[in-house]
Amino acid sequence: MTVEAVSLRQKNPVQEEDVEEELGEIKLYKIRWVIIGIFVLYAAVSAVQWVQYSIITNIIVRYYGVTPVAVDWTSMISMITYPPLLLPGSYMIDRIGLRSCALIGVVGTAVGTWIKMFSVQPHLFMLGFAGQTVVFVSQIFILSLPPKVASVWFGPNEVSTACSLGVFGTQLGTALSFILPPLIVRNHDNIDDIGKDLSYLFYGVGAVITPVVILVFIFFKSEPPLPPSIAQAKLRLNRSEFSNKEFLNSYKSLLTNMPFMVLSFAYGMNIGVFAAVCTLLNQFILTYFPNSEKDAGTIGLLLVVIGMLGVVVFGVILDKTKKFKEVAIALEVAIALYVMTTIGLIAFMIALETYSKVLVYISACVLGFFQNAYYAVGIEFGVELSFPQPESTSSGLLLAVMQICGVIYTLLLGECLSRFGAFWALSLMVIFLGIGTLITIFIPNILLRQEALGLTAEKNAFLPKNKNRRH
To answer: Which residues cross the membrane (predicted)?
Structure first.
C-alpha cells in the first residue's frame, strides 16, 4: 500500500521525541481518498432514492391510484425509520467497525433497490414502498458516518474537507433524486407508457448499486494501520475493549451535554424544514406553475447542487483558517448560516407569489447554498461540542432529531398547503427557522476538541503542516 508519511519532526527535537514515544508514528495513507470516494458513491446511490416518488407525485398518483399523502410517505419513511434505529445502528458501528457496517448498509440498499425493480405494476405500490423502506432502514449505516470516516482516515488539516465530501455524497444523490425522475418518467396519457418509464428509472439505479457493493467489499476498511493524527493516536492509545456500559454512557453524556442538545434542536429545526419543503416541492411548484414537473425537478436539483457548493466552500474555509475549534467563530458561522437560510426561504416564498420562474430559481439557489452548508457545518460543530464521544453517535443524534422534525414539518406543511395554501404553509416554516436561529444564539460556550484532548501549544506545533513530507 502506498502511503504519504507525515513526520512529526519539527524544530524542537526533544519535545518531538516525547510525542512520538508516547503516541507512536503517524501516517496519512493515499488510500484514504479511495475510501472517501467509495463512500461518496455509496451515499449517493442511497440518497438518489429519497424523493424518487414524491418529486413526480402527480404521475405516481395516476399510475398506482394512491393518494398524494401515500406518495409523501415514500419520502417520509426515510425520516420515520431513522430515530428508532439510531441506537442499534450506532451500537453496531461501535461494536463491529466501519467496514462491517458499510457492507451491511450497502447490501441492504441493494436489496431494497432490487425489490423496487419488481414493483412496476399499478397494483404493486406497496411492494415498491417495502423496497423503499429497506433502502432507508439501511441508511442508518450511511448518514452518521462522514465525521467518523473523516476523523479515522484523514489528517487534522483535512478533517473538515473530508467530512464535507462525505456529506457531498448524500447531497449528490439527493440532487439526482430531484432531476432524474422528471426526466425519465413522463406524464403519458397511456398508463402502460408510464410503467415503462418507471422500469427504466428503477433498473437504472439497480445497475449502479451492484458495482458499488463490490467496491465496498474490496476496498472499504475500518481504519488505517497507523493513525493519521495526534488526536487519533491518543484515542488509540487510550482505547479499551468495547462494552455495553461505555456505549450507553456515551449516549448519557450526550443527552446531558447542554450545548450539544441545544445545537441538536436547532439543527433538527433547520434541516427538518429543508426535508419538508423538498418532499412537497412538486406540489408547491405545480400549485403556481401547472404541468411543470420538470421545473420542480430542476429547482430541487438547484437546491442541492448549489448547496453542495456551499458544503465544500465552508469545509475548505474551516480547514484553511483552522478557526472552527474556536467557540466564538463556530457559533458565528452557525448563526450566520441560519439567518441566511431563513432569508432564503422568505425569498423563495415571495418568488412563488410573483409567479416568476426566474425569481423562483434564483431564490432556490440562495436557500440551497446556505441550508446545505449548515447541514455539514452543523454536524461537525456537533462533533466538536460532544468530543470525545464517538462521531457516529453525536452525528447520529443530530440526524435523529432532524428526522423527527422532518416528519412533523412534512405533515404540518402538507396539511397547511391543502387547507390554507402555499404562502401560509411556507410562512409556518419561516417561523420555525426564526425560532431555530434564536436557539442557536444561546448555545453555551464550552471547551472544544483541542482542549478536551489536552493538547498543549507545544504539541500542537507538531501537527503536520506539509502533508507531502516523507520519512
So the answer is: 31-51, 63-84, 96-115, 124-145, 165-186, 198-220, 260-286, 298-317, 329-351, 358-377, 397-414, 421-443
Tell me the three state secondary structure of residue 433. helix
Identity of residue 47: A
Classify residue 385: in a domain, yes or no. Answer: yes
For the four alpha carbons of 149, 152, 158 and 160, in that order, the dihedral sign comes to: positive
Q: Decide: 113 and 277 in contact? Cβ < 8 Å.
A: no
Residue 359 lies in a domain: yes
pTM value is 0.68
Question: How many structural domains is the chain composed of?
Answer: 1
Residue 471 lies in a domain: no
Contact by Cβ (8 Å): 146, 161:
no
The reply to whether 436 falls in a domain is yes
DSSP string for 173-241: HHHHHHHHHHHHS---SSHHHHHHHHHHHHHHHHHHHHHHHHHHHHH--SS-SS-SSHHHHHHHHT---
Which pLDDT score is estimated for 12? 42
Burial of 123 (0-12, 13-18, 19+ CB in 10 A): exposed
CA-CA distances (angstroms) from residue 387 to 254, 257, 356, 393, 395? 9, 10, 47, 10, 11
Grid coordinates of 7 = 513526520
Radius of gyration, CA atoms only, the chain: 23
Q: Are 381 and 263 in contact (CB under 8 A)?
A: yes
Of residues 2, 395, 332, the one with CA closest to residue 166: 395
Residue span of the structural domain in which 173 resides: 28-233+255-454
Domain containing residue 222: CATH number: 1.20.1250.20
